[in-house]
Every structure is written in structure tokens, then in C-alpha cells.
Amino acid sequence: MTISHSRNATVNATTSGHAKAAAGFLALCVIALVLSVTACSANFTAYSRDMFQGNDLLTRQEYEQARTSFLRAYDELNNPEALIFAATACYKMGDLPAAERYLNDAERLLDGKTQFLLRIVGYKALVLLKAGRKEEGIDALNRYVHVYQYLFPLMNIADVQTMAAKNAVDLSKLEKLLDEQISKHESDVKQLLETGTGFLARPQFIGR
After folding, report:
1. Ordered structural domains, the chain, with CATH
2. What is the DSSP track for 91-123?
3. Whole-model pTM?
């Protein structure tokens, strides 16, 4: 009887120890999850703040400060959107090598997503043309026309098509046209994502 009771006490103690260890491990997992979620939330908040600030600076033509904000946003969340807008700022301030590098990195990170593809291909064309790499630039501009017609055949882009077809680019005019077209597309994408309405909510555009 004494031996039996002793064995039962040992088993109970072992079981209790295992239960306490499991409970402790579970508690640590919950704490780690909470900390992770909190950190992610903090990162997203900082990212959103820096993207908002960067876009405001870009609008005010304060390009160097805008680039700093966008790159800080990228460090916080590794979102290719931040690199794309950093490239835009770099192009505006004349840092063409950095603009091209950021655009290439962003396109790789997009992984087939199309939300900001139009800005990437449009600014690639502008970068190449401004750098004097005319043949590559015209090829990139033709790609822009193709992507635009697939994603967003809303505005008339005959002027852009003519420049590409005739191999004769007025760069300042092209930059203005592309900025207008790209901004309109991104505005409509934002409307679709936030409200489910707008031009891009039409059935033929769902999934593009």
C-alpha cells in the first residue's frame, strides 16, 4: 500500500509538473504573440505616417525630404510602395541611378501585383529617356502604353502613343502626361479598395 501510494504521488507530481510546464509555455507564446502584434501595429502606424509625410513633401516639391520619408517608411514595413515613391522623388531631384535602382527593386517585390505597376513602368521610361538611353526609354514607354491600356483604358493617351511611335519625345510634356495618368489611376485604385466603387469596380477590371 505504501509503495502504491508513493508511485501514485510520483505520477501525480510528474503530471502536475508537465501541466505547469505546458501552461508556462503557452503563456510565453501568448506574450510573444501580443508583443509581435503590438510591434506590427506600431510599424504600420509609423509607415503610414511617413508615407503621408512623404507624399505631402512630394506635392510641395521638397524632393530630398520626401525621399528620406519614403525610405524610412520602407525600413519600417518593407513595402514596395515606399520604394516606388522614393524613386519618384529621386527622379524629380535628378538622382537617376537611385531612381532606377529603387524601381527595379520595387518591381521585384511587387510579385505580380498591379496596384503601382503603372507608376513603375512610367517612371522607368522617364528615367531612361532623361538619362539619354533613348532606345531603352522608347521600349519602356511602349510597355507603359501596353500596361496602361490593360489596367486603366480610361484617359486618352494618344499623345504618349504618338511620342513612342514616332520615337520623338518631348520629355517635359511626357512627364506631365504620365504624372496625370498615373495619379488618376492610383486615385481610382484607392477608391476601389476603400469603397468598392468607381471605374475599376466594373466586372471587366476585377482581378487585374
Report:
1. 19-113 (1.25.40.10), 115-208 (no CATH)
2. HHTT-HHHHHHHHHHHHHHHTT--TTHHHHHHH
3. 0.76
